[in-house]
Amino acid sequence: MHAAISDLARRLRDCDRLVLFTGAGVSAESGIPTFRDAQTGLWARYSPEQLASPEGFRADPRTVWAWYAWRREKCLAAAPNPAHLAIAELQRRLPGVTLITQNVDGLHQRAGSEAPLELHGNLHRLKCFRCGADGGDWPETLDPLPRCVCGGLLRPAVVWFGESLPGEVLARASEAGLQAGLFFSIGTSSLVYPAADLPFQAKRRGAFVVEINPQPTPLSRHADLCLHGAAGGVLPRLLAALE
Ligand code: NAD
Ligand code: APR
């Protein structure tokens, strides 16, 4: 991997359009469970259709709120790990870096990354389930469940199963990918669309695509370089090679 990282550092120095695309794996080393890890993943223990869908919320809003309150506690108790910190440092050091994330935990921002494109929203923000208006910050209590001024129930501002991604955010992410000279896909299973299509779009436009993941994914055989390792180990080594 040493030679690959040296070559990649050279590419980074010559690149002025870099996209960093992240998934739950980037927060795994902060102790936040990913979704699909067989034993520890969230979906191994909960039914996402019941907890991360409009139908599930309509049927039992209190349970969905309790689940997100549990996830939010884990996010607040977690600290950015070396992967988040290395990503924020790459953004400071290199020109033309766009950070796109599927994560909703806010750890990129806490690590110092500014304005990541949050394709699936943010757990720490609320919106109205009925009218979609911004719902401000989390309430002190969930009893009674918080409501919008329109009377509708508030919900976490996270994209759920079957919902569309925020169109403007997705368009900006897609545009960045299409312009990218170098596209990193870090800590994502590459299973969930339309987010998972971004590296393929970039590849079709000639970007050099790098995957950082301990496990293979559907992207692996299309990537130009696969670094099979944890993001918290690989990214700091890449940063050091840039010096
Ligand atoms: P889904 O098949 O119900 O919805 C995703 C499909 O919707 C994609 O195949 C895509 O074609 C289309 N789509 C969604 N937003 C779009 C947009 N803005 N522009 C164009 N096409 C769009 O898949 P899903 O697994 O139910 O997930 C739906 C959304 O919720 C995804 O963004 C996903 O990342 C998010 N989400 C998924 C999970 C999960 O585990 N699958 C959990 C939480 C949130
Ligand atoms: N470093 C890098 N990758 C890691 C690490 C790590 N330390 N630990 C785990 N991974 C990888 C796993 O191998 C897996 O490929 O992270 C990936 C996590 O995949 P998922 O759990 O599917 O998470 P993600 O790809 O972000 O899911 C996409 O689907 O569930 C929805 O909306 C949700 O945003 C999420 C989307």
TrEMBL record:
Q: Which CDD domains match?
A: SIRT5_Af1_CobB
Which cellular component, as a GO term, is one annotated location?
cytoplasm
The family database entries (Gene3D superfamilies) matched by this protein are listed as: SIR2/SIRT2 'Small Domain, TPP-binding domain
Active site: residue positions = H120
**Which residues are noted in the entry as Zn(2+)-binding?**
C128, C131, C148, C150
Residues the entry annotates as binding NAD(+): Q102, N103, V104, D105, G187, T188, S189, N213, P214, Q215, A231
Q: What is its main location?
A: cytoplasm
Domain remarks in the Swiss-Prot or TrEMBL record: 2 residues (Tyr-68 and Arg-71) present in a large hydrophobic pocket are probably involved in substrate specificity. They are important for desuccinylation activity, but dispensable for deacetylation activity.
NCBIfam families given in the database record: PRK00481.1-3
Q: What is this protein called?
A: NAD-dependent protein deacylase
Q: Which organism is it from?
A: Azotobacter vinelandii (strain DJ / ATCC BAA-1303)
Q: Which gene encodes it?
A: cobB
